[in-house]
Design goal:
alpha/beta, ABC transporter transmembrane region fold, Rossmann fold, 2 domains, four-stranded antiparallel β-sheet, 24 helices, 63% helix, 10% strand, transmembrane helix, transport, AAA+_ATPase, ATP hydrolysis activity
Length: 603
């Protein structure tokens, strides 16, 4: 995804070039205290987890050295008391180890949940502020993949991976420090010789895996996009008997995802066996040279046994290093995608001028407005249009003439290329976006209903509405009759996108929603385009009631629905070519008259 920024161009570039981990740490700065607490608990737990080999060494030392053991040198000469003291020390270590394990598990997992929760909300809220152009260039499935799969991938790493990295690092430091303190330098060198190669190999694998997991996340995004589109369009797939075709296309995307995963697995699977071989070198060196040193009296048998167990204990964390780096690279690939989304610039910036809805008169003015979609010719060309407050105007024209684009520009779903749009003589770019959009009610030809009850969908946007107000709005929209005939009435579930209702029923619910909102400006964008004549008549009756003393813009193909408008404008290729009342336009015998004759059957 290409990120195009406005004013903060330099800072965005710097952020985007940073490593994903650095970007995550910058984002998670508010959790710094929790991170330090979790890290400290992990370190303490690792130290305590390595204590049993030392306790075993002390036990061996007591049996072999007896009065000259560690406790003997501290003044405890009796063997029974030495073992009692060792048992007490073991109990204390075990209790502290269990407590620290509980603490780090709880803190890391809560931290993962908090970051996951807040990151998903921040990403979603950011997406809501992006302009419509972004959604035209992005797939729903891809966004779902980022907001769900990628953030979950990050949670999985924070739950377990971070603690494992701290565990291995702390174990290495303790082992190397203990070996330097106990062993002769040449034995320490031989035992630790593989460690630099292990570290170097780990980072080399990390860099090679990074690109492969970035490809994996990209492929899963394509796959999710295909699934989301197909499920949304399942009726079209069935009606065109395209099941086999879509199954083949899904199989192709799934196969690409499988292959990209296979390439990553091929590399990551080789990591553990290589680490085992490198650890074997150090363990064998310690086994032989340490044994010779113990036999020669250079170190005690207890110290020799401690080091053998410690190296063996270190073997398993190092073996799991491959799995940890695997999780790390998956999470970093996901982190990059989430952070790139958060870094996507918001192009529609809210203004700082507030306009309470009660003060809106509804006078609208387009002055020399030009607009073009990205990399396309202008669809609106130096258009000027004045709509007096409280009047109803209609805009008609052929498909693609720019009618619906005017609505999007008025709502600031897009920003104009040049010119100005004002409401009550205030430039809408200076208006607070919330105030602007609250003052406008939109009834679109493509009605979107949310999965929930009819009452919830009517009250959408007016969330504090009472049942009485919801029912009154439905009656004005002439929706109450059909709603009451449904099994659960206003509590009937409409299904996803309102699929359980007919097109006309959805339209009337959308009108009821606009009535309840009671905006000073009403936009009807092909509000009766997909309904039968009877439903259209019902909708027209309700519209006549709700447009009184309200600024109304009606966009329509069916000219019969707008013949009573105060003024009708005809658009062609982004320009207003005719205007006037219905009768005046018929007298002109121009484009409007031709359209009217076609629809009314006049030859």
């Amino acid at each position: 995804m290409t990120i195009i920024s406005k004013s903060p161009r330099v800072s965005n570039k710097l952020i985007n070039s940073a490593h994903p981990l650095q970007r995550l740490l910058n984002y998670g700065s508010q959790y710094r205290q929790q991170i330090w607490q979790a890290t400290l608990c992990s370190i303490i737990n690792t130290i305590l987890d390595l204590a049993p080999p030392w306790l075993i060494g002390i036990a061996v030392d007591i049996l072999v050295e007896q009065q000259n053991s560690v406790f003997g040198k501290l003044g405890v000469k009796d063997i029974v008391w030495q073992f009692l003291l060792l048992s007490l020390l073991t109990i204390i270590v075990w209790i502290l180890e269990s407590s620290s394990e509980y603490a780090y598990n709880r803190i890391w997992r809560n931290l993962a949940q908090n970051i996951q929760h807040n990151l998903r909300l921040d990403a979603y809220n950011h997406v809501q502020e992006l302009d419509s152009a972004y959604f035209e260039e992005s797939s729903t499935g891809g966004l779902m993949s980022i907001l769900n799969d990628d953030i979950n991938e990050l949670e999985d790493f924070l739950n377990f991976g971070a603690n494992e990295i701290i565990n291995i690092t702390t174990s290495l430091i303790i082992l190397i420090g203990g070996a330097l303190f106990i062993l002769p330098p040449y034995i320490t060198f031989a035992a630790m010789l593989p460690m630099p190669f292990i570290v170097w190999g780990s980072f080399s694998y990390q860099k090679r895996l990074e690109a492969r997991y970035a490809e994996v996340r990209e492929r899963v995004s394509f796959l999710n996009s295909r699934l989301a589109n197909n499920i949304s369009g399942i009726t079209t797939i069935k009606s065109f008997t395209a099941e086999a075709y879509e199954s083949a296309r899904l199989a192709g995307d799934s196969e690409a995802y499988r292959k990209s995963n296979t390439k990553a697995i091929k590399l990551s699977a080789a990591f553990v066996p290589l680490i085992r071989m490198l650890v074997l070198v150090g363990f064998t060196a310690l086994l032989f040279w340490g044994g010779m040193a113990a036999y020669g009296g250079q170190i005690s048998i207890g110290s020799y046994s401690v080091l053998l167990v410690l190296v063996q204990r270190l073997l398993w964390p190092l073996v799991t290093l491959g799995e940890i780096f695997d999780k790390y690279q998956r999470s970093m690939a996901s982190t990059k995608r989430v952070m790139d989304l958060l870094d996507t610039p918001i192009n529609i910036i809210t203004g700082d001028k507030y306009l309470p809805i009660a003060q809106v008169r509804g006078e609208i003015c387009f002055k020399q407005v030009t607009f073009a979609y990205h990399d396309r010719e202008p669809v609106i060309k130096k258009l000027s249009l004045h709509i007096p407050a409280g009047k109803t105007i209609a805009i008609v024209g052929s498909t693609g003439s720019g009618k619906s684009t005017l609505v999007k520009l008025l709502l600031r779903l897009y920003d104009i290329s040049s010119g100005t749009i004002t409401i009550d003589n205030i430039n809408i770019q200076k208006l607070n976006l919330g105030d602007l959009r609250r003052s406008i009610g939109l009834v679109s030809q493509d009605v979107f209903l949310f999965h929930g009850t009819i009452a919830e969908n009517i009250a959408y946007g007016t969330f504090n509405a009472t049942n009485k107000q919801i029912i009154e709005a439905a009656k004005i929209a002439e929706a109450d009759d059909f709603i009451m005939r449904l099994p659960q009435g206003y509590e009937t579930i409409v299904g996803e996108r309102g699929q359980k209702l007919s097109g006309g029923q959805r339209q009337r619910i959308a009108i009821a929603r606009a009535v309840l909102k009671n905006p000073p400006i009403l936009i009807l964008d092909e509000a009766t385009s997909a309904v039968d004549n009877e439903t259209e008549a019902a909708i027209q009756r309700s519209l006549e009631r709700i447009t009184v003393n309200r600024t109304t813009i009606a966009i329509a193909h069916r000219l019969s629905t707008i013949r009573n408008a105060d003024c009708i404008y005809v658009m062609e290729y982004g320009e207003l070519v005719e205007s006037g009342t219905h009768e005046a336009l018929l007298d002109k015998k121009g484009i409007y008259a031709s359209l009217w004759n076609v629809q009314s059957g006049v030859k």
